[in-house]
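Example record used in the benchmark description.
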Amino acid sequence: MPRSPLFLAVAAIVLLLVGAMTTQFVVHPPADTTASAASISASHLAQSVPIQPDSSLRNGIVVTGEGKVTVKPDIAQITLGVEETNPSASAAQQAAASQMDSVVSQLKQQGIADKDIQTVRYDLTPEYDYSNNGSPKLKDYKATNLVAVTVHDISKVGPVVDAVSGAGATRIQGISFSVSDPTAATTQGRDEAMKNAKAKADQMAKDAGVSVGAPILIEETGGTAPPPVAIVPNVAPGAAPAQTPISPGTQEVRVTVMVVYSIK
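Model output (structure tokens):
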């Protein structure tokens, strides 16, 4: 149906009014919004949003507990070998090799497996004489060959030392004892550490007139397996006493825990 000119004029006026009203409701951000945001100081932000520490930790009893377990070493490591000197480098090498063959053969006769014999040092070094007004003069060559021997039966340590000494070992640097598997001792030490921590917390709570609640934080802060204890047997190179006395003694496994208990 054709529209009259009057109707079209009225429709155009209505559309203009609607557009004007819509424009009034458009919100324009200020031109310096970025600059305004950048101008907010860090101190103002810190005051507006304070960082609160964990209230559960502030209201708890913090203690450390330690557990100690005495263990007897069941494994030993002996560092031993030979040293040979000779004006000839090749002669020193050959003498050391021959003597070391005898030592290793004796180790195997004592029941030491190949996997428990490991070379830890081998070198050939020149030695000089400085007695002539400090001017160095080549004197000898020294060949050194050392192996680390693991002994899984502590009772065999003395006989092994005697055997290699008699076979020509000229260096027995020391013996260290350790525990092959400290897992069980560490577990027991952890139990003792927790008991020790609880006893401390109970005492502190009693003195403060409060009661100990459940632990809200447990952290193992330290666990140490017994370090190897080194000894040097008093055996003269080349000598073979009846039996070298070896005493492994005992060692300690220590576990430390930090526990936070709630207060009831």
